[in-house]
Design a protein that fits this description.
heterodimer; A: alpha/beta; six-stranded mixed sheet; four-stranded antiparallel sheet; 9 helices; B: 489 residues; five-stranded mixed sheet; 18 helices; 12% strand; elongated
Chain lengths: 254, 489
């Protein structure tokens, strides 16, 4: 993204924001709660309008400033970028398998056999294949999160955005999710992954690069080990201190 | 001794006062002013008063009893049950004499003889002279009358189609509009309609004759005997004839009738049907009416569901103008009585589109309930979390696909239980369509009850038939609510 400016009413959420996501990289967009991480992700998938800047995919402009375009103008974007929301938000009336095959069947026009084969493979990779016939209300928080990831990956996007993916996971599940993300980044010739999180430990362990968002702009960026190992900006230092005191695994609800 | 004298005097005083009070007690008589002249109508000069030959007969009876007449308005079909429960002393208003009436109430001698006459359009006057000429044709009349019973008997014999009305105006307008081939009603009503709207002819040959009587509570035989004495005197001294002449209903038939009544003081006792016989006789008709109710409700609900879903989708997804139009429709249908809507669709629009009664009933109920259904669907659509829709968008589904695959199915779960409740309500509201001549379960029950003069057995039967349908539905709705309560919370 280049020069992104997102406003919410009169409040400027971010301005002049640049971020390059290379294939195969895992980025952590960090900041304290309420700083605007989710808004940035929503702008990248055209759920939130932005007033300045552009979003480019493979050097082609995918989104311009202004109102959110109509869905039919967003087909290329939808196939390129997947988003896993903080709450899994699985479709409650569909089984796990139907949740994952819904987009391939109806948005991509895949055959049911192909869609189900691909969906079962994804569920297998994410460790929830045994729950294919379960309804969402029968899943644990961690299982639901992984099914939501499988659903976003079912259209095989080159870029995957994730919003606070560890907020509902215990330490063991966080570890396995991190491993899965690394694996996903390596797939299909390299997939770019951007994770919005305030989980310092997770970012340190699994992100290649970190962007720290504070006061509406990226205040520090670079390799994860450098930014989180030797922070230069007070906001990053605050984030590290806050992260140590308030580990997100407290929200565990398995 | 002094005390005993005082008590005796006090008792005498009280008795005298009670006697005075009794003498001053008004004669309460019930009638239906909606029936109009010449029976009972609101006086155009003073609408608070009523006039008509039944009014004058009531005054004549009150004078004979040395009491003040006091009119009590009551729906014509309720006169018999109201008099029995003591709402008034005497019921009149063209009450027809029949065996069931005599079996259940005290009934006066017949004071007027009417003829059931056929009204047909001019063009049909030569071919529809009597009922036998009307095999397979639609013939209208007032429900729960002698004429209706005649038509039902003819239906069984020749396949004539009886059409029941709640008032005596619309049968004639429907005859002119071509919805009916003939109307069978009392000659007084027929001649009044001929004067008012014209455009048809009355066949000279009477189909049957009948008599108007005054009806009293079963136990009130003393008053009935006094009423009969006064009526006989009025027949002899010409005062009853003067009344009928005033209202232009006197003819030779009445003179012959008076002579018969005065010579035949020992009128044959009536024989009523037993309850068991009457139930057996009416059950097939009630079951047929139940079928009409169910068919009507199912078809109306189908319209309500489809139109309601369209309205809800328009209000949630449509432009501002379509939202305004659809909201206005919903408010109009919910803010005006269903009865009025049925009248407008059946009678009001008849110059533009002449719908058959059943179709008008289905359409009226369907369009009315579509407004209520649309509100259920709209709130159900809005109850689906926004996040679910956003997830579906990021997966690349079109808005139509989101509606069909994500929002609609989830909204349906919210809507299904209230929809079932609405169907039960519609089932009961379907009783209103009798105003546009559709004989459904409640109307058939009313006819049954009026004919046998009691609501107990017909009411219980009718309630049981409604419950047979509505209870399982209500149970099904509760089960659905329980099953899905947790799944979309």
């Amino acid at each position: 993204m280049r020069g992104l400016r997102v406003e919410h009413g009169t409040r400027v959420i971010v301005s002049a924001m640049n971020l390059d996501l290379a294939p195969g990289e895992v980025h952590a967009l960090m900041g304290v709660s309420g700083v605007g991480k989710t808004t940035v992700l929503r702008a990248l998938v055209a759920l939130q309008p932005f007033s300045e800047g552009t979003v480019m995919i493979d050097d082609v402009v995918a989104l311009r400033p202004g109102p959110v375009p109509r869905e039919r103008q967003l087909r290329a974007l939808r196939r390129s970028i997947g988003l896993v929301f903080q709450a899994p938000s699985l479709f409650e009336h569909l089984t796990v398998l139907d949740n994952v095959t819904l987009a391939p069947l109806h948005a991509l026009g895949a055959t049911r056999a192909d869609a189900e084969t691909a969906a079962r493979r994804l569920l297998e990779e994410l460790g929830v294949a045994s729950r294919a016939d379960a309804l969402p209300r029968e899943l644990s928080g961690g299982e639901a999160q992984r099914v939501a990831i499988a659903r976003a990956l079912a259209v095989d996007p080159g870029i995957l955005l994730m919003d606070e993916p560890t907020s509902a996971l215990d330490p063991a599940r966080r570890g396995s999710l991190g491993q899965a993300l690394r694996q996903l980044a390596r797939e299909r010739g390299g997939r770019g992954i951007l994770v919005a999180t305030h989980d310092v430990e997770f970012a340190q362990s699994y992100a290649d690069r970190v962007e720290v968002l504070a006061g509406g702009e990226i205040v520090e960026e670079g390799p994860a080990a450098v930014v989180l190992g030797s922070p230069t900006h007070p906001a990053t230092r605050d984030l590290l201190r806050h992260g140590e005191k308030n580990n997100p695994t407290h929200e565990f609800n398995e | 001794m002094r005390t005993a004298t005082r008590v005796t005097l006090l008792c005498i005083g009280l008795l005298l006062e009670a006697g005075k009070a009794c003498a001053q007690q008004p004669l309460r008589w019930g009638g239906d002013a909606e029936g109009g002249a010449p029976f009972v109508e609101a006086d155009p000069a003073n609408p608070a008063r009523v006039r008509g030959f039944d009014v004058e007969i009531a005054e004549l009876l009150a004078r004979g009893l040395r009491r003040e007449p006091q009119f009590v308005q009551v729906a014509w079909s309720s006169i018999e049950s109201s008099v029995e429960r003591g709402d008034f002393d005497i019921g009149m208003s063209g009450v027809e004499d029949r065996p069931e009436l005599r079996a259940r109430h005290a009934v006066s001698l017949p004071y007027f003889e009417f003829r059931e006459v056929l009204a047909v359009r001019h063009a049909d006057s030569a071919r529809f002279r009597r009922l036998t000429d009307l095999a397979g044709k639609r013939v209208g009349t007032l429900g729960a009358t002698q004429a209706y019973q005649i038509l039902l008997a003819e239906q069984a014999r020749t396949g004539l189609v009886p059409v029941s009305y709640d008032d005596d105006v619309h049968p004639y307008s429907d005859l002119l509009a071509g919805r009916l081939d003939a109307v069978l009603l009392d000659h007084i009503i027929a001649e009044r309609s001929l004067r008012r709207i014209g455009g048809f002819v009355l066949e000279p040959e009477a189909v049957a004759t009948g008599h108007y009587v005054a009806v009293l509570a079963r136990a009130n035989t003393t008053l009935r005997d006094s009423v009969n004495d006064i009526l006989r005197t009025a027949m002899r001294d010409g005062s009853l004839e003067r009344t009928f002449r005033t209202w232009a209903v006197w003819d030779d038939a009445q003179a012959r009738h008076f002579a018969r009544v005065l010579s035949d003081t020992a009128r044959a006792a009536a024989t009523g049907q037993s309850t068991v016989t009457s139930v057996a006789a009416y059950v097939p008709a009630l079951l047929r009416a139940l079928l009409v109710t169910v068919l009507l409700s199912v078809l109306a609900m189908a319209i309500a569901v489809v139109a309601g879903a369209g309205i809800a989708a328009g209000r949630v997804y449509g432009s501002r103008i379509s939202r305004i139009i659809l909201t206005s429709y919903v408010e109009l249908m919910r803010g005006t009585p269903l009865l009025l809507q049925l009248f407008v669709i059946y009678y009001g629009l008849s110059s533009v589109i002449r719908l058959p009664a059943f179709a008008a009933a289905v359409l009226g109920l369907g369009l009315n309930y579509a407004a209520y259904e649309s509100e259920i669907y709209r709130s159900a659509l809005q109850a689906v979390p926004r996040l679910q829709l956003e997830v579906a968008r990021t997966l690349g589904l079109s808005e139509l696909q989101i509606f069909r695959l994500v929002r609609g199915p989830q909204a349906l779960r919210f809507a299904l239980a209230p929809m079932t409740n609405d169907f039960v309500a519609l089932l009961k509201d379907s009783s209103l369509v009798s105003v546009i001549t559709v004989v459904e379960l409640t109307k058939e029950t009313a006819i049954y009850a009026t004919n046998i003069g009691s609501w107990v057995v017909p009411g219980l039967l009718c309630a049981a038939l409604y419950l047979v349908i509505s209870l399982p539905l209500a149970r099904y709705a509760r089960r659905l609510e329980r099953r899905w309560r947790g799944s979309v919370a």
